[in-house]
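Long-time lurker. I teach an intro course on protein structure, and each term I like to show students one example going from raw sequence to a predicted 3D structure in token notation. This year I'd like something fresh instead of my usual example. Would anyone be willing to generate the tokens for the chain below so I can use it in lecture? Attribution to the forum is fine with me.
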Amino acid sequence: MKNIPVRVFLMAWAVSSLAFAASSDVIDVGSRRELWIDGFLVDQLQGKAELRLHHPVAREVVIKHDRPWEGNASAYHSIFKDGDRYRMYYRGWQITFTPGKARTSNNFLCFAGSDDGIHWRRPELGLHEFQGSKANNIVLLSGTFQGVNADAGHPAVFKDENPAAKPTERYKAIIRSKKPLGLLAFASPDGLHWSPMSTAPVITDGAFDSQNLAFWDGVRGEYRAYWRYFTGGVTNDNDWKPKGIRSIRTATSKDFIHWSRQADLRYVDSPPEQLYTNAVKPYDRAPHLLIGLPQRYVERGWSDSMRALPDQAHRELKAGIVERYGTAICESLLMASRDGVEFKRWNEAFIRPGIEREGTWHYPHQLAGWHLVETKSALEGAPNELSLYAIESYGVGTSSTLRRYTLRLDGFVSAQAPMSGGEVISKPIRFAGRSLNLNFSTSAAGNIRVELQDEKGRPLPGFALEDCPPIFGDTLDRAVGWTGGGDVSALAGKPIRLRFELKDSDLFSFQFK
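-- Reply from a regular --
Happy to contribute to a lecture. Here you go:
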């Protein structure tokens, strides 16, 4: 797996490496899985240890949007597992560029299903007519619908896991309204037949010309929404004018209708950048972590490098309409949060635009789908992996394509060190469980050793580094053992620190069980 070493600056959370936190700062991790994705639990990085960003591996194209109601601007995919099957919702849309003009088709909300998250089918649902036929997979049309003006072109669909959700509202969606401008709340009993939950937008302060989304946050017991904003605000009237740069705003709700606690996202150690989308959602294996896959938007202007990119003639055609259509480029980033507002955003690309080929390095190439799903590995006998999806050939030709990418479970960021070695020491934590289990990978010669310390950093008897035989291999779940055994239940509920010694190894996550 390709990766880039990144030295993480933890100023927002870490105290001096010579000072240790007081008991009041002990972090209760319980028995939840903890990842290094945000650096929150790190107190010290010693030797050559660092936090390293990993990158998804490109796989096959899973859908080519070549149906007559789809097109080269089909995008904004919502992907999630529903029981034993997978669901996908997306916008069907075509943009046709001619000298000095861009013509667009109507927007449609479409549905696809899968048994494995890899092979997708577009059923003929028979719900809405297109060019005289209902043999299509359209579930919602743009236009006036049951008293609301719905724009089906910016959808975000999810299954509501709120135990109090009505059976008739088991699936929900945030749909943009153009007049009045805002976000409409929609619901469905089956994910196919949709109705508005109110006759007016439930969120109105924003730009919304992107994939705006909402979901049930089971850890915090509330709905949370994320939507397109601009740092200088937006004038929502007949003369719609955003100011500043593209940004993200959030709010919470108990009923999906009334939203409050609006806040602009804040970032740790990241410069102001244009973020086109957000793709934020709880990570299934550690739902206290909200993981986002925002798209970074960069206007590079004309240069020799820009002219050397693929599809030059088409790029110049688009730039003749609006220059940024031809000279803006995009890529997917990675960010994570524990409170939904302050995010650790990795400044290096999570998914780069990739090797130059037809249909790549365009605006907005590699728009990431919402969100990650767990799928089977192509390697026989290997454990499951994460699949994520991103758009290619946007605005080029007549069909955009959706490509799948894979990543190790929890494999976003690792605590890593070369053979010369390094150490990661955690902040004081409190846990529940009997064993400490690791998701890790080493070389044949590399290894990991673990020490449990008291709050002040002193080795605990029987759990010192020299008591831990070297751990090596490549697995998602291995219990740590010391010479006296692996039972740590006597320390449960007490403040401790974790010290990981790493040699040519990556540690992705840990969990007390």
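Some talking points for your students: The first helix runs from residue 304 to 308. The helical segments are 304-308, 312-319, 323-327.
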